[in-house]
């Protein structure tokens, strides 16, 4: 199964820049479908980025984050070829995880 | 972000996806079992359910935020589509431990907040939904104190209409 997470991480002058794109509906719970029924909230709550077992970035998201959320962050202390783990969990308990190598 | 850069990024993403699949196809099932899902129990349910900017900051961090000109926000002044508004925050404040993004006129103001551990630069870029023309507030926790910056976004099509 293809992962729901796409990541690109690039190291430059000691700073790793990471861009991640997650496929997720991020329903806010305020939108109604064509029949007038409220679409229940369904969104990613927590997304973590870890390097060597240590979290380098933790995003706590609410339903106001856009569909198919995009995140960019920068951190120090990693080098080219290092592996990063990106994981998320949503409000229904579903989760996904992927690894990426820093280029 | 210009359209050109965005294209490049998306193309790059495709490449990463394909390479990742080729490399990992054999070991992926093991990895999935070994990987632990993040813990959502710390997720601040109450802060995400609070309307109003100041109330949310108080709920989330237990203090009031003071205005700071050392926080740089990058977001459009006019957003054609309120469902996808790119927001970037960067700050020169020292010892940053957290960044939060709030949308003043959304039903619940808090959109996202980020833990920034040591070694991570105080920068984040994210895309947010906003229902109508509104102020966007960035809160930065630096040396244990809260600072904020505000910028207005004109939304021509709301993000809650589906």
TrEMBL record, chain A:
SUPFAM superfamilies registered for this protein in UniProt: E set domains
Annotated ranges, domain Sulphur oxidation protein SoxZ: 6-100
Any one Pfam family match given in the protein's UniProt record, by short name: SoxZ
UniProt protein name: Sulfur compound chelating protein SoxZ
Gene3D superfamilies: Immunoglobulins (2.60.40.10)
UniProtKB/TrEMBL annotation, chain B:
Pfam families, per database record: SoxY (PF13501)
Gene3D superfamilies recorded: SoxY domain
PROSITE patterns assigned to the protein according to its UniProt record, in alphabetical order: TAT
Domain Ig-like SoxY residues, every copy: 59-160
InterPro entries for the chain: SoxY, SoxY_sf, Sulphur_oxidation_SoxY, TAT_signal
Protein name: Thiosulfate-binding protein SoxY
Organism: Marinobacter pelagius
Lineage: Bacteria, Pseudomonadati, Pseudomonadota, Gammaproteobacteria, Pseudomonadales
């Amino acid at each position: 199964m293809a992962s729901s997470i796409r990541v690109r991480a690039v190291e430059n002058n000691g700073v790793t820049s990471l861009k991640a794109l997650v496929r997720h509906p991020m329903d806010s719970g305020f939108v109604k479908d064509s029949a007038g029924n409220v679409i229940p909230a369904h969104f990613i709550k927590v997304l973590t980025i870890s390097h060597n077992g240590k979290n380098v970035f933790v995003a706590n998201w609410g339903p106001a984050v856009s569909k198919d959320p995009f995140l960019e962050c920068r951190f120090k202390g990693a080098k080219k070829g290092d592996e990063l783990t990106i994981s998320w969990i949503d409000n229904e308990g579903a989760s996904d995880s992927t690894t990426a190598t820093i280029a | 972000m210009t359209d050109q850069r965005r294209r490049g990024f998306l193309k790059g993403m495709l490449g990463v996806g394909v390479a990742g699949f080729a490399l990992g196809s054999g070991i992926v099932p093991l990895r999935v079992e070994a990987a632990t899902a993040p813990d959502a129990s710390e997720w601040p349910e109450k802060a995400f359910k609070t309307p109003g900017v100041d109330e949310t900051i108080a709920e989330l961090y237990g203090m009031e935020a003071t205005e700071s000109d050392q926080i740089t926000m990058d977001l459009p002044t006019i957003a054609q589509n309120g469902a996808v508004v790119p927001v970037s925050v960067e700050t020169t404040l020292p010892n940053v431990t957290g960044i939060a993004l709030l949308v003043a006129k959304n039903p619940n103001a808090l959109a996202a907040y980020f833990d920034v551990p040591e070694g991570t630069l105080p920068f984040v870029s994210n895309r947010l939904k906003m229902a109508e023309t509104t102020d966007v507030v960035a809160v930065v926790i630096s040396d244990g104190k809260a600072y904020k910056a505000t910028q207005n976004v004109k939304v021509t099509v709301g993000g809650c209409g589906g």
